[in-house]
Amino acid sequence: MSLPEPLERLISVFKRFPGIGEKSARRMAFCVLQQPESFALAMAEGLIDLRRKLHPCAVCGNITDIDPCSICDDPFRDRTLVCVVESAEDLISMEQAGIYNGLYHVLGGKVSPLEDEELDPDKLQSLKQRVIDLSVQEIIIATNPRIEGDLTFFEIISYLKGTDVRISRLAYGLPVGGSIEFADRVTLHAAFESRVNLDKYPR
Amino acid sequence: MSLPEPLERLISVFKRFPGIGEKSARRMAFCVLQQPESFALAMAEGLIDLRRKLHPCAVCGNITDIDPCSICDDPFRDRTLVCVVESAEDLISMEQAGIYNGLYHVLGGKVSPLEDEELDPDKLQSLKQRVIDLSVQEIIIATNPRIEGDLTFFEIISYLKGTDVRISRLAYGLPVGGSIEFADRVTLHAAFESRVNLDKYPR
Asked: How confident is residue B192, by pLDDT bands cut at 50, 70 and 90?
């Protein structure tokens, strides 16, 4: 049985979303049919607005509708710290955790030989330029804790050679709330290697 | 941190899809940002087309862009059989299985006291009318195998009282390819109750 063309077409568009297969895409298309027409119109308008109004911040690469973005423009942010992330999604996760008050630099990619992906040299150059031009004291590299993230990390530090900025990386170790029983061996190894000396703790 | 307004808005629209939560909706919105603008435009157009070009078939309630739908209009279909389903999604699943060659009748709902949902009396009336006006010999009730489906089933047969059409229901039993070990007790009970007599099999 062939579905009506408009239904078939929307399903094939929905299937291009990550993690959405045939069945989910079909359920979404039927949801559009069952909801009032205003739902489809709001989504259509939202899609076009999203593409037309948002762009990467010219300074840090965060997704924004103003330039520079609200983070780069915030006078209460610590301008001596720049956290380097792979994507704007990672930036948003950090902001929503509310644990960091410095600036960001979004690479918009990672080093992945398997996916034939390289870092955009402009993004590395603009990071170096920010370090040189502004009073950045520390670059915190927050690439994802996996092979691609590590390769990305090494590429960033080799690019920053010759600058005297302090460079750090997020700690690897046991995820808080997790359990040792289920920790994988690489994480356990990292937790051992980076164990914290407690000599100075009162006993 | 508040996200840019167009991003926030599209995420809240995506969250109205069944099974899509905050994280998935955010990933979808970012996917729209990362894909070329043509993706957003195709989806926007698809959404509007879907709502404007598709409607329920006037005869059976199937989703269609022509009237009557391609199933009702198909001269090779067995017009003596009408399969009653809760939704057009169910109809599509059956068509894709390719195991049935009769007509359909989509109720567009079910009896669900918990969700305060009732059957549309017009759909029941039009089913009765099809039985009376046309040479329908058998109504196959294919409501979902759960409480709401059974309530719907009883409502349909009580509505068809007074007609002499044959009425049947899909068999309940072990799903083929499943295992008895993991079958629930209601399914096992149904499988016992509806056990098939093998006296006539050669031995």
From this structure: confident
- Rounded Cα gap, residues B110 and B116, in angstroms: 10
Q: Is B184 on the interface with A (CB under 8 A)?
A: no
pLDDT digits (tens, 9 = 90+) for A93-119: 888 888 899 999 999 999 999 999 999
The answer to whether A33 contacts B50, with C-beta atoms less than 8 Å apart, is: yes
Contacts of A10 (CB under 8 A, 6+ apart): A29, A32, B43, B46, B47, B49, B50
- The verdict on B123 and B80 lying in the same domain is yes
Which chain B residue has the Cα nearest residue A37? B51
Give the A window 12-51 contacts with B, CB below 8 Å. Answer: 13-14, 16-20, 24, 26-33, 35, 37, 39-51
DSSP 8-state secondary structure symbol assigned to residue A65: S
pTM summary value: 0.74
CA gap A170, A140 in Å, rounded: 7
Residue B191 forms part of a structural domain:
no
Shared-domain flag, residues A105 and A156: yes
- pLDDT surpassing 80 at residue A168: yes
| A2, A5, A10, A57, best to mutate vs chain B, most B CBs in 10 Å | A10
The domain of B101 spans: 63-169
Cα distances (angstroms) measured from residue B116 to each of B110, B124, B196: 10, 18, 37
Pairwise CA distance, residues B22 & A1, whole Å: 34
End-to-end CA distance of chain B: 74
The complex scores an ipTM of 0.75
As a whole number, mean pLDDT of residues A142-167 equals 90
